[in-house]
Amino acid sequence: MTDSEPVIRTTRLDHGLEIVTERHASRRSSSLCWLVPGGVAHDPLDRGDGWASMLSEYLLRGIEEHDSRGFSDALDRLGARRSVSADSYHQRVSATMPGDRLPAVLDLLTPMVQGPRLPADALDPVRALCLQELSGIEDDPAQLVGLRLDEIRYPIPFERHGMGNEEHLRATVRDDLADHWQSVSGPRGSILAIAGAVDHDQVVEQLKRSTADWEGGAARPEASHPAAGGVRLVERDTSQVHVALGFDGPVAGDPDALAFRTAVGVLGGGTSSRLFLDVRERRGLAYAVGSRYDEGLALGAVTISAGTTPERVAETLDRIEFVLTDFGRSGPTDEEVRRIVVMLRASVIMQQEEGPSRARQLALETFRLDRARSMPEILDAYARIDPDDVRRVVAEKLGDHWRAAGTRCLLGPSSAIGL
Questions:
Q1: Which is it for strands 7-12 and 18-23: parallel, antiparallel or unpaired?
Q2: For 173-198, what is each residue's pLDDT tens digit?
């Protein structure tokens, strides 16, 4: 290995915080992704739906040493672009900065994670932003149909979209969020990944000192109730009908996950996919149609989405069903597999060039797979994809039973969706 090749190193501190770095000798910037327990699935079902979203806005509002304005100014002076967002399991703290400013940025973000100020006078603006985001769901029917699908295809507590419940958001007080963050966040289950200009040993020593008194960390949430399943019809006075179909998929650690991703790409990934060519190009039934595969720690999912007119929704669904049935029985051709592999490899290569994307990948792979893979290892896995193996996975995992177990959500005028 030469000095110019990226090097991945991992250290788990005694209290549980896992530090993953990938040093790029030629880069002058650093990007970090810090996963801290406290995501949407941790929100209390009875009164806290939306707390994770509120916290993602609230955490950046200052630390003990700096009020909200002072904290923001301090990060700006370091040239740090930063954000906090909530996923199912974590608050995801992201930042990119010049490499020589990384230690100073960590000195600001670490107390934010351990003991944010959460000023009382910032709660109402935080609440207003969350309520505004929640109300905006109705302005995007394509997003809304996907969220309503998730509510019936995922088990509790993973069925929630994260933007919250209006009643819960309005009733939340500052101490609710402070107590909740104290109870769920902590070094156990936290993963800090840094890509770019980074000295692993220096980061480890810095975090040993600055997090020495940090403790806790909630256990990973697990499904408590099964998914509702079935069909959901959402009446809206729209000129189009939005269709979302949900199916199961392998989890991230499944050895068939990559072949499955390839198969879903052939099915609906791009303008040369089976769904696009049949439903849109040949028949003009839908102005948009495609599929995606999301691999998670405990849940994997395939989503097929389409937008069509009220007059053509039944025919569109019939053609999607036909394409799925035919694909499940015949599988992809060698040429289709090669095309998707080229697309997937290109995506990985471009991700390598983006520090924030690479830091996020390092963190998520550590969470989902218990280790972060090097880019050569990932590219090699794509290079070894075998069309026969993809066809095997299609036959085993995308057949009649897979289709029959799917969920469906339609959004549009009542006469078009069957109400």
A1: antiparallel
A2: 999 999 999 999 999 999 999 999 99
Residue 105 is which amino acid?
V
Using CA atoms, how far residue 392 sits from 205, 300, 385, 388, in Å, is 48, 18, 12, 6
Q: What is the pLDDT of residue 419?
A: 61
3-state DSSP assignment of residue 80:
coil
d(CA 176, CA 179): 5
Measured CA to CA, the distance from residue 366 to residue 356 in angstroms comes to 16
Whether omega for the bond prior to residue 111 falls within 30 degrees of 0, making it cis, is no
Give the Å distances, CA to CA, from 360 to 31, 213, 218, 287, 356: 9, 26, 21, 32, 6
Distances in Å between the alpha carbon of 33 and those of 18, 166, 202, 249, 377? 12, 30, 17, 26, 21
Q: Is the pLDDT of residue 340 over 70?
A: yes
Does residue 178 contact residue 118 with C-beta atoms inside 8 Å?
yes
Per-residue pLDDT for 1 more than 60? Answer: no
Instruction: State which H helix or E strand residue 105 sits in.
Output: helix 102-114
pTM, two decimal places = 0.94
Could you tell me the pLDDT band of residue 352, with boundaries at 50, 70 and 90?
confident
Please report which residue ranges of 115-197 form alpha helices under DSSP H: 123-135, 141-153, 166-171, 174-184
Total residue count of the chain as it appears in this document? 419
Give the three-class secondary structure for 156: strand
Is 60 exceeded by the pLDDT of residue 286? yes
Task: For residues 229 and 156, give the distance between their C-alpha atoms in angstroms, rounded to a whole number.
Answer: 12
Token digits of residue 373: 């893979």
